[in-house]
Amino acid sequence: MSYLKFDKNLMINLEQSLSKEMLRTNQAGAYHCSSIVGCNTRKQHGLLVIPIPEMDNKSFVMLSTLDETVIQHGAPFNLGLHRYSGGVYSPNGHKYIREYDCESVPRTTYRVGGVILTKEMVFSSEENRILIRYTLVEAHSPTTLQFRPFLAFREANQLVVQNDRLNQEGKEINNGMGFCLYPGFPTLYMQFNRKPTWVSNPNWYNGIEYVKDLERGLPYTEDLWVPGYFEIPIKKGESIIFSSGVSETSPRSLAKMYEHEVASRTKRSSFYNCLKNAAKQFYIKNPDGEYIVSGYPWGEIRARDIFIALPGTTLAIGHDEDFHNIMDTATKAYRNYMDNEMLDSRINAIDLPDVPLWAAWSIQQYSKSAGMDAAREKYLPFLADVLDWIIAGGHPNLQVDTNGLVGTTGTNTPVSWMNATVNGWPLIPRSGYLVEFNALWYNALMFAANLTENVDGYHSRRENWLTLAEQAKPSFVHTFLNDYGYLHDYVNGSYSELAVRPNMAIAVGMDYSPLDRRQRKGVLDVVTRELLTPKGLRTLSPKSYGYHPFYVGSPDDRIKAYHNGTARPWLIGMYADAYIKVFGMSGISYIDRMLIGFEDEMSNGCIGSISQLYDGNPPFTGRGAISHATCVAEVLRTLRNLKKLNA
To answer: Is the dihedral angle over the CA atoms 585, 590, 592, 594 positive or is it negative?
Structure first.
């Protein structure tokens, strides 16, 4: 029994099937993403979406879809599906689907009369190339397949309309055709492992709609160019392999290439394996280094997200080497930032004030996985230099005050992960002392002190860190703990933010917390009572003013809810840490039950992964990026911690 299998009844019900999406990536930053019935519902969907270095490494939809048509006795049966103006779906190929299975590779089984055809897709891990294998399982008469490519050649967040600027000329290549619609783009090569017949039949397909963009109040209609179609006869038991990439390949190599890619896949046969597969999809490798992308189908490489996601996406699945490679790239980039040298152009927002604090936390997670000696040998020099740099006033927006706490200015520009803006201004102007910044700061000082105990050459630095920590601990309690038993989200001068927000859970979940056990429990009780959902922690309590639980409607409506009520899965890792620290081994079964809410998501949204955020009220629908690195990472890290505790 497959863990991710959907039958005919679900597939032909567009109300159910269009909401389920699938994602395939490679480590060069390319991806394929669509609904499980093959109908693109977002402008970011596409059969081949690739970053183009010459165009600021933005992602571009090259091949939007490939419509297949089964021909028997001269009668065509089109397996494609598009939504056109007025909400009309055509050509309704979903009615031929009998099963969709995504355990190993995405496989769709079609039945057209006496014809049974399977379609399986993989991404090349070595290059930006998608491979599709079609196998004719059953047929009682001669069968021919037609393939119509819908070309976009546009940035993934834009739309294309019919125009006369495109280059209609294609060039014949070995077993296929190549097209380059606009100057500056690479050529898209489409090839088969057998020689097809190419029929030129150029047309614009106008008024294709993307329903997810329509729901989000964004532009949602475009026109796609179809230059013609390929045609190949196929016999029962035969397979045809289609390749699309930005370089020409040998058709003879396609079968071997396909089998190699299938053999390297992690089967999504369990909750853990689904998340392991999803975690590896965030890895990005290029000649400059190795990175973690924040999410799909939109996202970027951001410093904070790298350090938060790194332990869960690598150590929690046994990929220690990837941890080192990505951490080496990130720490090198951060040293360059500290030294005012050339920055890594791929890493965004490296200057934000909490980035070094999350870096320290990430190293701490490595120490718990590999041991203190390994962490000391590998990362102590970097950690020590970062802390001393902050203490010396090196960071332009993270100052250590005389009370041991760190302050920051976020009035005009967002500085924390709560970074929503309205007309360029922070929606939540968190400034001054931020609760998670200071929890991370105290934790980093204590961890570094612990790491350098009895280490030659670090005595005076260690004493300085401990002195600051001793100052920060009572200052933290005095500044943040209020009379209601929970923590202020931030304190700026005489103003103390009373809204109940989840950042206080980070303070409770740190290994070294400035709160004692009784205080931790009091804060955790408030978090559990007002913020906990089956999909993570709410960004604002329903009892607080301005609560917006549903991330729907226009961009303005959604931005109001972004950090004012939606639930964030990544915070479940901090909550689980906090719960175990407060309740000990007796809390294990509770956290284990809590994760059931995420296992349910494996067959919803982006199947096999976790969305960026969820509505704060039932039914807790997934929203935002359909697969998000920090969310997948923190659920994986929690799963691993539970396994170690149960061992």
So the answer is: negative
CA angle 324, 328, 333 (to 5 degrees): 155
Average pLDDT, the chain: 96
For the residues 534-545, what does the mean pLDDT come to?
A: 97
Q: Which residues contact 438 (CB under 8 A, 6 or more apart)?
A: 405, 406, 472, 476, 479, 480, 507, 514
pLDDT exceeds 90 at position 606: yes
549-586: string of b/e by CB count within 10 Å (b at 16+)?
Answer: bebeeeeeebbbbbbbbbbbbbbbbbbbbbbbbbeeee
CA atoms within 13 A of residue 381's CA, in its CB half-sphere: 6
**Can you give the pLDDT at residue 604?**
94
Query: HSE of 203 in the Cβ direction (CA atoms, 13 Å)?
Result: 9
Q: Above 60 in pLDDT, residue 1? A: no
Tokens of 609: 């992964």
Segment 589-594 long-range contacts (CB within 8 Å, at least 24 positions apart)? 591/638, 591/642, 592/642, 594/532, 594/534
d(CA 218, CA 212): 9
Residue 271's SS3 state is helix
Number of Cα atoms under 13 Å in the Cβ half of residue 333: 28
So what's the pLDDT on residue 55? 86
Q: Which pLDDT score, from 0 to 100, does residue 2 have? A: 66
Name 123's bridge partners.
130
Half-sphere exposure of 513 (CA within 13 A, CB side): 27
- Whole-number Cα distances in Å, 190 to 29, 238, 467: 20, 20, 65
Could you list the beta-strand ranges (E) of 31-96. Answer: 31-35, 46-51, 59-72, 75-78, 82-84, 88-90
Q: Rounded distance, CA 425 to CA 434, Å? A: 18
| pLDDT tens sequence across 318-329 | 999 999 999 999
pTM: 0.95
Give the Cα separation of 264 and 282 in Å (integer).
Answer: 16
Given a contact cutoff of 8 angstroms between Cβ atoms, the answer to whether 239 and 133 are in contact is: yes
